From TrEMBL:
Residues 52-466 form the Aminoacyl-transfer RNA synthetases class-II family profile domain. Catalyzes the attachment of proline to tRNA(Pro) in a two-step reaction: proline is first activated by ATP to form Pro-AMP and then transferred to the acceptor end of tRNA(Pro). As ProRS can inadvertently accommodate and process non-cognate amino acids such as alanine and cysteine, to avoid such errors it has two additional distinct editing activities against alanine. One activity is designated as 'pretransfer' editing and involves the tRNA(Pro)-independent hydrolysis of activated Ala-AMP. It catalyses: tRNA(Pro) + L-proline + ATP = L-prolyl-tRNA(Pro) + AMP + diphosphate. It is an enzyme of class 6 (ligase). It comes from the Bacteria. Homodimer. This is Proline--tRNA ligase. Keywords: Aminoacyl-tRNA synthetase, ATP-binding, Cytoplasm, Ligase, Nucleotide-binding, Protein biosynthesis. Belongs to the class-II aminoacyl-tRNA synthetase family. ProS type 1 subfamily. It is found in: Cytoplasm. One of its GO terms (cellular component) is cytosol.
Length: 562
């Protein structure tokens, strides 16, 4: 079977201009090069070139997951409510969850992640310690009704994820399964040609303990992380600033109206909250001199309301409203107070989410629930708070830290027994007694990886894929008339016979200039041009990344490429 793909028959329509709504490089280029098309907000169609890249990434992921002994399965994307009700996530996910009803009125959801369903499958299939450990994975479409799906496939509302789950009878077993995944992820991202860091992470809505993220540094990333220029220390700022998570029980309360003028004083705030003006407050969101501010944070930086009053004497304090969050999807709350009280942190996304919902009333004097410690949640829900800023000393070596943006491409968790407890997942132990299973969960954003790779490897001319991921190994261009076309097709057949994946641009009536521009945009790593020296059997081989060109005989070019 010929591997030669002719451009004249390929469904690809390249665009010269960036799509109007595109903000990130990968979004612009993947659309312009004809890899994806937007179907609806955050919902993308993968066209032939894009599907090839997506499949190449999936292949690498599969190979490395299989190599650690994980078994591939495919669980449904359309899921019943009950297991998610049991775990609490039917509610906890809030607006992120796509919920729907069947014809009989029963509740369903489109799976955002599958811990519940995998736990049930293993409960059904594994009954003895002899059946464990087991690692299962799938590459499945996930659904999350993201608030701002605006960076193309980087943040879809429908997207492809590889998710896997490990099931062990012992804590040591879980640590080992986690280590296997961690190593597999390192191999996967290295093979994909991604520059990445492994950072400790908050476990967020997943619950559980140890958790690390794989971050691909890129300007378009929505994560901020600190990176030590001198040693290998790196951490997600969320993890550095909040070393613990808020319990699942935290849910948004109703909107409350403050019976105060638009600019409340510390006294009116305190009265409204039902605390003395000398109280210690945690995580009340207000605006101070126009900046969104968290009054009080847990740990030793908690703020005495009375003292805050003194600090803020000349400042204008206002309550936050929905407008304050409109352009702040990441809900960064910052506070720089006078007199050395300097706090900068990124809130736990869940608190911020609650806050955003509740401030949705968008009136002055609206107070956000779930932001006041003691009333909305307990201080013990936080273990530690460290504040981090650019230039702060690295905890490992003391060098000044750098703050950078990155794309979260993977995330691994030691879940522990959270889901096993929910579903009473036990197996018969060696001693004949039931043993509660301990779990890990591990995700890779397969469709996001396409965009992350594009972000990291593209240049002004267009996309520029590493060979293993590219839609073809070589892009042959017939730059001329019949003679060049004949040579291009002939070389293409030879390359294909040698096992290469070949894309050949033999489109009649298309100028060499347009073909070159398209080749650069599409980003196949090697470009072979049959041009003005075709009569002598001389072609030009160009490296897409370096731009280096060489004139070679056909035979030389073929041996160079194979
Ligand atoms: P983010 O912080 O970017 O919202 P997440 O932490 O919510 O991601 P996880 O629940 O950890 O995501 O899911 C595992 C992986 O799935 C992520 O590491 C990421 O690569 C990918 N992913 C998550 N959400 C999306 C999305 N909306 N579109 C594409 N990929 C996604
Ligand atoms: Mg998310
Ligand atoms: Mg995340
Ligand atoms: Mg994550």
């Amino acid at each position: 079977m010929s591997q030669v793909q002719r451009m004249s028959r390929l469904m690809v329509k390249t665009l010269r201009d960036d799509p109007a709504d595109a903000e990130t490089l990968s979004h612009k280029l993947l659309v312009r090069a004809g890899y994806v098309r937007r179907t609806s907000a955050g919902i993308w169609s993968w066209l032939p070139l894009g599907k090839k890249v997506l499949d190449n990434i999936s292949r690498v992921v599969r190979e490395e997951m299989d190599a650690i002994g994980a078994q591939e399965v495919l669980l449904p994307a359309l899921l019943p409510r009950e297991p998610y009700e049991a775990s609490g996530r039917w509610e906890e996910y809030g607006d992120l969850l796509f919920r729907l009803k069947d014809r009989k009125g029963a509740d369903y959801l489109l799976g955002p992640t599958h811990e519940e369903i995998f736990t049930q499958v293993v409960k059904d299939q594994c009954t003895s310690y002899k059946d464990l450990p087991v690692m299962l994975y799938q590459i499945q479409t996930k659904y999350r009704d993201e608030a701002r799906p605006r960076s193309g496939v980087l943040r879809g509302r429908e997207f492809q994820m590889k998710d896997s789950y490990s099931f062990d009878t012992t804590d040591e077993g879980l640590v080992e399964s986690y280590a296997l995944h961690r190593a597999a992820y390192q191999k996967i991202f290295a093979r994909l040609g991604l520059d990445f860091r492994i950072v400790s992470a908050v476990s967020g809505a997943m619950g559980g303990s140890a958790s690390e993220e794989f971050l691909a540094p890129a300007a378009a990333g929505e994560d901020t992380f600190v990176d030590c220029p001198a040693c290998d220390y790196a951490a997600n700022t969320e993890a550095v600033t909040f070393a613990a998570t808020v319990p699942a029980a935290v849910e948004p309360g109703p909107v409350e109206e403050l019976d105060t003028p638009d600019t409340p004083t510390i006294e009116t705030l305190a009265a409204h909250l039902g605390v003395p003006a000398s109280a210690t407050l945690k995580n009340l969101l207000v605006k101070i001199d126009g900046e969104i501010t968290a009054v009080g944070v847990p740990g030793d930086r908690e703020v005495d309301l009375g003292k805050l009053g003194e600090h803020l004497a000349p400042a204008v304090v206002e309550l936050v409203t929905a407008e304050d969050f409109e352009d702040r999807p990441e809900l960064v709350r910052g506070y720089v107070g006078p007199q050395g009280l300097k706090i900068r942190y990124i809130a736990d996304p869940r608190i911020a989410l609650g806050t955003a919902w509740i401030t949705g009333a968008n009136k002055p004097g609206t107070h956000a629930r779930n932001v006041v410690c003691g009333r909305d949640f307990e201080v013990d829900d936080y273990l530690d708070v460290v504040v981090v800023e650019e230039g702060d000393p690295c905890p490992a070596c003391g060098t000044g830290l750098k703050l950078d943006r990155a794309i979260e491409i993977g995330h691994i968790f030691q879940l522990g027994r959270k889901y096993a407890d929910t579903f009473q997942l036990d197996v018969l132990g060696q001693q004949g007694k039931p043993v509660r299973v301990t779990m890990g969960s591990y995700g890779i954003g397969v469709s996001r990886a396409v965009a992350a790779l594009a972000e990291q490897s593209a240049d002004e001319q267009g996309l520029c894929w590493p060979r293993e991921i590219a839609p073809a190994d070589v892009h042959v261009v017939a730059a001329g008339k019949a003679l060049q076309t004949e040579l291009a097709l002939d070389v293409s057949e030879q390359l294909s016979a040698a096992g290469l994946r070949v894309l050949v641009d033999e489109r009649p009536g298309v100028s060499p200039g347009v073909k070159f521009t398209d080749a650069e945009l599409i980003g196949v790593p090697k470009i072979l041009v049959a041009g003005r020296r075709s009569a002598e059997g001389v072609v030009e081989l160009k490296d897409r990344r370096t731009g280096e060109r060489e004139e070679l005989t056909v035979a030389e070019a073929i041996s160079r490429l194979t």
